[in-house]
Amino acid sequence: MAEFMTTAFWVAVGQIILIDILLGGDNAVVIALACRGLPPKQRKLGIIYGTMGAIILRVVLIAFALALLAIPYLKLVGGVLLVWIGVKLLMPHDDDDHSNISANDKLWGAVKTVIVADLVMSVDNVLAIAGAAQGAGQAHQLPLVIFGLLVSIPIIVAGSQIVLKLMDRFPIIITLGAMLLGWIAGQMIYTDPGLKDWLPASKTWEYAMAAGGALLVLALGKLLQARKKPEAAA
After folding, report:
1. Could you say which of 16, 45, 49, 232 is the most buried, measured as most Cβ atoms within 10 Å of its Cβ?
2. Helix crossing, 103-133 with 141-169: angle to 10°?
3. Distance of alpha carbon 34 from alpha carbon 152, whole angstroms
4. 3-state helix/strand/coil string of the chain
5. How many of the other CB atoms lie within 10 Å of CB of 109?
6. Which one, of 172, 59, 161, lies nearest residue 115 by Cα?
7. Keywords of this protein's UniProt record, alphabetized (predicted)?
């Protein structure tokens, strides 16, 4: 028990919480995007369940962080998946399209979207948290990570609810949030170990790939929206 009262332990806890707050901005956006189509009474449940599932998944990822990031083309696959999620979240939620789906199905659909998106987005982030935990000693790294992430849950939940309220008032945030996922996808693809020999080592290229991902999500989203309008009219 004494090991958990050391300065190194609490410094590491503070670092993990700070890292998760900084990285939680992306999570708050994707959680809010995924839950925006839910009835107001179910939004909070979607946020809480999605966040808890994402946190549990992140703990598992951290345990295998080094091995995961060393696998060639994993980030490439994750980036493509993140683009797809961004495009999907950019599509409007029409009441007619979901008239035959129960509220429970919609809720768990949002929760699954949150967990899948966090799985993809966490691949880049888990190393920072695992690195912060190393300062407290190897024997306590995983318990420390779990503790730090549990403390961060209310922070992410509160951030998601704020983003949801802003989305209701300013719909442009939905578009910007989806493009943010495309930006992250571009960065992930650029830093994939399997593509290292094929892409120039340059910040300019990294930003270009990120911008390309954001524009790709926007373009595909607008294209699918344009195709959906005639179908809705028919």
Report:
1. 16
2. 130
3. 20
4. CHHHHCHHHHHHHHHHHHHHHHHHHHHHHHHHHHHCCCCHHHHHHHHHHHHHHHHHHHHHHHHCHHHHHCCCCHHHHHHHHHHHHHHHHHCCCCCHHHCCCCHHHHHHHHHHHHHHHHHHHHHHHHHHHHHHHHHHCHHHHHHHHHHHHHHHHHHHHHHHHHHHHHHHHCCHHHHHHHHHHHHHHHHHHHCCHHHCCCCCCCHHHHHHHHHHHHHHHHHHHHHHHHHHHHHHHC
5. 16
6. 59
7. Membrane, Transmembrane, Transmembrane helix
Spatial contact of 149 and 54, defined as CB atoms under 8 Å apart: no
User: Is the predicted pLDDT of residue 140 greater than 90, yes or no?
Assistant: no
Q: Which residue has the higher pLDDT, 23 or 59?
A: 59
- Going by C-alpha positions, the residue among 174, 186, 179 that lies closest to residue 218 is 179
Is the pLDDT assigned to residue 102 strictly greater than 60?
A: no
Residue reference for tokens 């790294």 = 141
The answer to whether 89 and 33 have CB atoms below 8 angstroms apart is yes
Q: Which pLDDT band, with edges at 50, 70 and 90, does 209 fall under?
A: very high
Residue 50 CA from chain centroid, whole number? 11
Q: Which two tokens stand for residue 1?
A: 């028990």
The 10 Å Cβ neighbour count of residue 130 is 20
CA dist 43 → 104, 172, 224 (Å): 12, 20, 26
- Both tokens of residue 197? 């020999």
pLDDT tier for residue 213 given thresholds of 50, 70 and 90: very high
